[in-house]
Amino acid sequence: MTLQIKSLEQYNDVYKRSIEDPEGFWAEQGETFKWRKKWDKTLEWDFRKPDIKWFLGGKLNITENCLDRHLETRGDQVAIIWEPNNPDAPVKKYTYKELHAEVCKAANGLKAMGIGKGDRVCFYMPMVPELAIGILACARVGAIHSVVFAGFSATALADRIKDATCKVVICSDYNNRGAKNIPVKTVVDEAMTMGCDSIETVLVHRNTGGVVEWNSDLDQWWHEVIDNQSTDCEAEEMDAEDMLFILYTSGSTGKPKGVVHTCGGYMVYTTFSFKNVFQYNDGDIYWCTADIGWITGHSYIVYGPLAAGATTIMFEGIPTYPDAGRFWQVCEKHKVNQFYTAPTAIRALMAKGDQYVEGHDLSDLKTLGSVGEPINEEAWSWYNKKIGKGNCPIVDTWWQTETGGILITPLPNITDTKPCYASYPMPGIQPVLLDSDGNLVEGNNVEGLLAVKFPWPSMLRTTYGDHQRCKNTYFAMFDNHYFTGDGARRDEDGRYRIIGRVDDVINVSGHRMGTAEVENAINEHPNVVESAVVGYPHDIKGQGIYAYVIINQVVEDVDAFRKEVIKVVRREIGPIAKPDIIQIVSGLPKTRSGKIMRRILRKVASSDTSNLGDVSTLLNPEVVQEIIDNALV
Ligand code: PRX
Question: Residue of 62, 154, 183, 409 with fewest CB within 10 Å of its CB?
Fold first, then answer.
């Protein structure tokens, strides 16, 4: 059984032990799983390469841990509750037995399509059960899944398919999202015209039954390939360090990179953190509102909860459909005990008014979670008071796509909670604050750059196809440390408060985006010469996107031009990256070496021009005043 910490004293003891003897500690956690062959060595690591290996020589299949091993003890327990977009449509429930059967069928279907160990399979699907079933089926046959959030554009999808040379892409016909019926397959069809030569099959799940164009060279129906397959499928034996999945995420430079997670360590850490962070107990109903297109969905809708034998809810819809009470209606309907969502959703619902909460019975809630961005005090207090009724601890969980699991968080009813603070490190996690020269910032009541000095089992191993990039991005900034890209503060009691990114990454509604990526998209507009994108404080989204653009030819209709720019960004990345504000400028403030002074642009976008510092050394100091005078905030 996974260790579940129950008291502050125990947390302190376990934490101490996990730091003094990390290998012994994680070996004990590892032993609670089903291995085909036990590992020979618990850990080998060298951050300088980086080369990180956990449970070396261990053989397993993660789906035997998420499914098979529960069959005897909890085969008839519900594993997944699927709540549809339309509140009146039927809920689907899969027991562990049923889920096992569905995953085996899908795994046999993948095999029939020629998919096996090491092949890459891309998913571009809404939140339907087949997405969870599909990724587990990949893991069953040893294929590597790469889930692409279904809000990304055809261009973004094609880029990811090509980077991972996927053999198959699995999609739905349409996506039910609020009042919309969004075509999904047409996006895949378009991506297929963009040089995705590695794709042999487009497997289409019939979701809404809407009309789709059919390309008989590539397309096959999910139901035709999978429905008649056997419900038994021997799981492929995987090495602990074999790849489990790739998940693309944005950085400060270039195109999104494929973060790679491996089987053994990821399983151990996501299960351990799930059990402890949510204090999940048998019989509880757990709901994480994330999309499986992001890491939160991978680790805390699918793998962590299922490996822990939990009942996990998958929600197809959005928080505001049919109205802003939907989350609370679903909590009441399924008697949810642990609820995990993003600050942007909390802020949006808070703004709609308390009337949407009132009248819903939320008395089954025990723990509330927050993830993805800093949660401001007002939203924290509303969540605490209106949703938790003052007696559900809020776990403000800090982590990243790269960390695979939650690293810094309160533990409910064990450690205390404080608004805006992700608080304390999980067992086995050794965070440090560094100054920009890499010196350790010691003591409490200090600020610095957040790094981690010792490996943990679910950390990324590489970035797909480009190990050097992994090294440069995370391990080159500070010798022998993993650098997170975040700045943090440590308070007088040692709690961590995440301040935000210190690189050119912005966080819009909990979605992580590289400013360079958005700029590259904007620059595709034929009349744009150059652009600079920064984040600015936004009441609901946390950060909004502010774009400064230099144009080639004067435009008569500025609004029409803005619409065109937005259209280009939607085409290149997707609607989540569309700028909120577009300001046309005659120049961008640059240093003499030609580097854009984003610091100035960020200040203007935040309406904070009181202290711009010395701009006289810029190449073009005169543009600063022009930019301030025409600012749109
Ligand atoms: O800046 C931090 C912010 O989200 C970044 C990671 O984004 P992503 O890889 O998309 O993963 C999001 C879900 C795990 C971090 O570098 N972030 C995440 N959680 C928090 C947070 N910022 C403040 N508080 C958090 N709890």
Answer: 183
